[in-house]
Write a structure and sequence with these properties.
Shape: globular
Oligomer: single chain
CATH class: Alpha Beta
Distance between the termini: 25 Å
Strand content: 15-25%
Largest sheet: 9 strands, mixed
Number of helices: 4
Low-confidence stretches: 1-24
Structural class: alpha/beta
Helix content: 25-40%
CATH topology: Glutaredoxin
CATH superfamily: Glutaredoxin
Length: 164
């Protein structure tokens, strides 16, 4: 599934389908012109992450695959932090209290943002009632790939290394 949404954050350069097939498209710049609240109520402008490799992960507390994937993302965020990688989690429909509890349980060290009520952003990121979805963005602002579902640690590392 190749998603191209005019004027939005997501016009995919490389889409990994759940059956493992890959589609290549021209490089497209990500639009990070969105502001959300983090799980503690602070405003976060996504443009603050421009100029660095970025992984945006859409998830939910009720999502089994998200629970499996979260420890991988925490580990990878730490492993690649010195290279400039930022991982940002955006919960699609949880309240801040639920996100804080989840982040504490899973020892999440990266920013966790509230996507509840942010329908335009979620649509722009390719959310269609399925999570997890991860969008990988290069430092130059172009979208490397969008992945629906979970990946192996080796797949994550390969894709993250391609961001640098």
């Amino acid at each position: 599934m190749v998603l191209v949404i005019a004027g939005s954050l997501l016009a995919v350069a490389l889409v990994v389908r759940t059956n493992g097939s890959v589609t290549h498209e021209p490089r497209v710049k990500a639009n990070l012109a969105f502001t959300l609240e983090d799980m503690n109520g602070a405003k976060v402008d996504l443009q603050r992450y421009a100029g660095k490799p970025l992984v945006i992960n859409l998830w939910a507390t009720w999502c089994g695959p998200c629970r499996l994937e979260m420890p991988q993302l925490v580990e990878l965020a730490g492993k690649f932090k010195d290279k400039g990688l930022t991982v940002v989690g955006i919960s699609v429909d949880d309240k801040p209290d639920d996100i804080r509890q989840f982040a504490a349980e899973y020892k999440v060290t990266y920013p966790m943002l509230v996507g509840l009520g942010q329908d335009a952003l979620l649509r722009a990121l390719g959310y269609e009632e399925t999570v997890p979805i991860s969008v990988l963005i290069r430092a130059d602002g172009t979208i490397h790939s969008s992945v629906t579902g979970i990946m192996t640690t080796d797949d994550w590392e390969k894709r993250i290394r391609e961001l640098f």
